[in-house]
Amino acid sequence: LSERLTETFRNLRTKGKLSPADVDGTVREIRRALLDADVALEVVKEFAAKVRERALGDEVNRALNPAQQVVQIVNEELIAILGGEQRRLEFAKTPPTVIMLAGLQGSGKTTFAGKLAKMLAKDGHTPLLVAADLQRPNAVGQLTVVAERAGATIFAPEPGNGVGDPVRVSRDGIEFAKRHQHDIVIVDTAGRLGVDAELMKQAADIRAAVQPDEVLFVIDSMIGQDAVNTAKAFQEGVDFTGVVLSKLDGDARGGAALSVASVTGRPIIFASTGEGLDDLEAFHPDRMASRILDLGDILTLIEQAQQNFDEAEALKVAEKLANEQFTLEDFLEQMQQFKKMGSMKKMLGMLPGMGNMKQQLEDFDEREIDRTEAIIRSMTPAERRTPKLLNGSRRLRIARGSGVTVTDVNALVQRFEQAAKMMKTVARGGVPNIPGMGPV
Ligand code: GDP
Ligand code: MG
Hints:
The chain has three domains: 3-81, SRP54, nucleotide-binding domain (Four Helix Bundle (Hemerythrin (Met), subunit A)), CATH 1.20.120; 97-284, 3-Layer(aba) Sandwich (Rossmann fold); 298-439, Orthogonal Bundle (434 Repressor (Amino-terminal Domain)), CATH 1.10.260. Helix content is 57%, strand content 10%. The protein has 21 helices and ten strands. Helix 5 (66-81) crosses helix 12 (285-293), helix 6 runs parallel beside helix 7 (139-150) and helix 14 packs across helix 21 (406-428). Mean pLDDT is 80; it is low at 295-310, 351-360 and 430-440. The chain is flat, with a radius of gyration of 26 Å. The structure holds guanosine-5'-diphosphate and magnesium ion.
């Protein structure tokens, strides 16, 4: 898809001023890229028109760097369609929170039910899975297996009771949850291979009976151009409060995300990314925007860098590094800057030539940063400035003070030394510098 698009942006970057022809050329490429990504035509048209209008407007002409501004506009508009901010699940004021799932057969509802139960259980909730798919012979069995693997309880009609009534099972399930202190109820419903009236009515009846706090529409991201019609049908037939994109691990470019979000105006809350029960992620509009544009996350980096990286701070650190005065205090400041920018891993992956560093810091997650902060805060100013002072008894004191083990303190010091070395390398080549974008 996007080598062409990346090329277009690269050409734009080197130009000082944009002509209307430049803008039209770029918009054409964006249209093609989005269609390649399986975004529905009606959505593509609207999007391209909006970008064109903004790109030709005053905003860009007055900008210091018009090319960069167009890149920014594309990114902003994509994020806006995808819902802007990340949206989290909403819980009921009085438990149980009822979450109902809807979607076509095979879209991934049952799998998602298990994933969500597992994720919520990990957060200390006690989810109950309700088997309201009584259509397919094997559906209850499948949910039973999923529930077991997720460590969740299942509520299903007694076997041998003939074909149950999904509305009644759902209602009984919620009563069961109240009696047995389940604070969340996930209602798995039936689907059809295509949209049909009976299916819609059943889902709408369940919705009316159980008054869910969230109705999540699960859609297969590989569905392509059908995404719009399916989503519209479910919005009219049942309506939903949020969307779950499933099978985002495949070749899907995420075009369905853009189509569904755009035509329904409903936020995407989760991305399901595999057959395993742990393959579930909160949906981030900004990351999806760059996935769709396939710009190697450079757009996100630019934005984050602009928003969060304090240039003066960066220069100060770079100077210190050049003079080899990098201390644990600087390290802490640096950590906090990185934390603001998003995960350290991701940052390093995005910086050209830093691929091998990324490997080194593979297990460096944000909780690590918090722990690091706690440890450094337990040091005296002298220790922070001169880490060589950190002998065994000082390390023990620091470990006690910050509630970690001496091994953790040792690991931190080692990481600090690694980072100091790494930062020196960066400093020699200048502060993080993105090709074509000028210094950050
Ligand atoms: P339902 O009919 O909507 O309940 O869909 P299922 O949960 O039964 O899923 C249908 C098929 O898709 C199953 O084979 C699942 O293993 C598979 N599946 C579900 N979610 C994902 C996902 O995120 N990634 C992949 N690769 N497969 C998935
Ligand atoms: Mg199912």
